[in-house]
Amino acid sequence: MTHTATSIAPVELEKHKEVLGKLIELYGEVFSHDGYGDIRLEMKILRRGQKEIIIHCGKQHRFVLDCDQALVNESAFKHLLKRDLLT
Known about the structure:
three-stranded antiparallel sheet, elongated
């Protein structure tokens, strides 16, 4: 996977410690498992500047975090439309 530089502000890791801790824990479980394993990460924009993070690994682990950057790069018109749809 290739990453390119973006103008998005860096993630404040303090807010994400619980999510990253669960991801590391699940990675360790899948790696040490004697067989096939699968981890999937899903993120959805919620209303009020939040994101829902769902880690799929046998069961779902759900987290909701504040995200000021969720709608920053959108046009004002698209932002208003999305805001109206989400409320």
